[in-house]
Amino acid sequence: MEELEKLKYPIGHFECPKEISKEDIDRWISVLDNLPKKLHELVKDLNEQQLDTPYRDGGWTVRQVIHHLADSHHHSYTRFKWALTENRPLIKAYEEKDWSNLTDAKSAPIALSLNYLTAMHAKLVYMLTHISSLDYQKSYIHPDGNMNVSVAENLGKYAWHSNHHYAHIKNLIDRKKWID
């Protein structure tokens, strides 16, 4: 059971600091800024069979993880925009497991999502580096438990999410010894 938990959560669960500092924000923005290039470098030499290998038994394939990152971060980008432009909007959740079973997630070329992540993260990083400290306190309501999520916390969650799924792929590559 401990081994499965380590495969599912290789960097642990997200824990948001009670007080989010400017240093936290800067570090998290850096993660988002670096993810597209770092991810591309990690997967650029993988073949189709490797891309269609699950990162763990019962888990998503590398291809699905990459497409999931694009889908999830697309939602996050929209959540940032809603929080910044509306007064605590109630967002719409999505069924990520169902999205990851759609044809595009299971078979589309990863370049589609890698290119999308590059463009989307560039826009997101630009926006996040140009908003005020008061903007980071704005929030949205997540329908699962009616949780209030600040822009700063959402940034932390998606920096964690980036590292979380990067670790899934990196750990698989290391276990399989696919790259020297």
Automatic annotation (TrEMBL):
UniProt protein name: DinB superfamily protein
Keywords: Cytoplasm, Hydrolase, Metal-binding, Zinc
InterPro entries: DinB-like (IPR024775), DinB/YfiT-like (IPR034660), Put_metal_dep_hydrolase_YfiT (IPR023774)
Keyword flag Lipid biosynthesis: no
Domain of life assignment: Bacteria
SUPFAM superfamilies referenced in this protein's UniProt entry, alphabetically: DinB/YfiT-like putative metalloenzymes (SSF109854)
DinB-like domain sequence ranges: 33-169
Source organism of this protein record: Maribacter sedimenticola
Keyword field contains Isomerase: no
A Pfam family: DinB_2
